[in-house]
């Protein structure tokens, strides 16, 4: 006689309910995994998001709608930053102006990294014209080479290259109307124009030159980052920042793992 399953005698409605709960758990697990993957990608690209730091809370008096989009200054009034309910910054004014270099000094555990994360992740309002890149204590070890790691940082270039490939495939569709073909052709032209502005054709040479300036030989540039020591990982992270050349660069302990002779980097 076949054994009855655990829910063999359960009412049909109960079985359906349990199936729904199981499906819901699977969906939640998949969503959680997706968010974790997106967070890891954002961190790897030096662009953290608020979702990565749920324990950090920021409040401020600045009206985000009144922030000038083309401004190159971050100006926030009545800023309060708390971590796990503990206030690190209280009702302060934050002013960061383009072209200046700022140093954040404080005791270990005083909240320096937390404040930097709040700024980098966009919890602190900033003009849309300001792109931010952060180097936070090195980078993860992966199967990517040093050169690949530097090149992947330019997210816009990668997205445009993928769009160009997709547009080219679409233009091969013989069922498209003349108007549709024209629209695709015009968009493809715009994409290539933007890629030219970004220097896509010279990106690899530029990345290799930056790595060389940081002490990487050609052989080391082709070496997987998982095989690097902490010091070389930090240099790779710095190379990514130099390659991107953002409006606002945040460095959290950038000389970690570097020897005294390399601190000038």
Automatic annotation (TrEMBL):
- Start and end residues of each stretch annotated as Disordered: 1-43
Q: What is the lineage of its organism?
A: Eukaryota, Sar, Stramenopiles, Bigyra, Labyrinthulomycetes
**Which residue intervals define the domain ABC transporter in the entry?**
90-256
Q: Which residues form a coiled coil?
A: 150-177
Sorted keywords for this record are: Coiled coil, Repeat
Organism source for this protein?
Mucochytrium quahogii
Q: Write down the InterPro entries for this protein, in alphabetical order.
A: ABC_transporter-like_ATP-bd, ABCF, P-loop_NTPase
Q: Where is the composition biased (Basic and acidic residues)?
A: 24-37
**Gene3D superfamilies linked:** P-loop containing nucleotide triphosphate hydrolases (3.40.50.300)
Does Coiled coil count among this protein's keywords? yes
**Name of the molecule in the record:** ABC transporter domain-containing protein
Instruction: Give the GO molecular function terms.
Output: ATP binding; ATP hydrolysis activity
The answer to whether the entry has keyword Repeat is yes
Q: Name one Pfam family in it.
A: ABC_tran
Which SUPFAM superfamilies does the record match to this protein? Answer: P-loop containing nucleoside triphosphate hydrolases
């Amino acid at each position: 006689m076949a054994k009855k399953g655990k829910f063999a005698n359960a009412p049909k409605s109960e079985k359906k309910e349990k199936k729904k709960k199981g499906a819901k758990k699977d969906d939640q697990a998949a969503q959680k995994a997706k968010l974790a993957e997106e967070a890891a990608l954002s961190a790897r690209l030096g662009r953290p998001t608020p979702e990565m730091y749920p324990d950090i809370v920021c409040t401020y008096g600045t009206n985000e709608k009144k922030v000038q989009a083309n401004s190159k200054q971050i100006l926030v009034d009545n800023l309060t930053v708390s971590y796990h309910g503990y206030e690190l910054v209280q009702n302060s004014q934050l002013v960061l102006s383009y072209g200046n270099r700022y140093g954040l000094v404080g005791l270990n555990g005083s909240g320096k990294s937390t404040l930097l994360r709040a700024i980098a992740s966009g919890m602190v309002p900033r003009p849309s014209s300001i792109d931010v890149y952060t180097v936070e204590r090195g980078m993860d070890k992966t199967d990517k080479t040093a050169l690949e790691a530097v090149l992947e940082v330019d997210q816009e270039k990668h997205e445009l290259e993928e769009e160009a490939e997709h547009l080219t495939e679409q233009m091969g569709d013989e069922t498209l109307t003349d108007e549709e073909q024209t629209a695709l052709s015009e968009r493809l032209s715009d994409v290539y124009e933007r890629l030219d502005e970004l220097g896509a054709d010279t990106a690899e040479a530029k990345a290799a030159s930056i790595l060389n300036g940081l002490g990487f030989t050609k052989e080391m540039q082709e070496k997987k980052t998982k095989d690097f020591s902490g010091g070389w990982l930090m240099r790779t992270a710095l190379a990514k920042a130099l390659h991107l050349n953002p409006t606002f660069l945040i460095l959290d302990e950038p000389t970690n793992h570097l020897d005294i002779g390399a601190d000038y980097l």
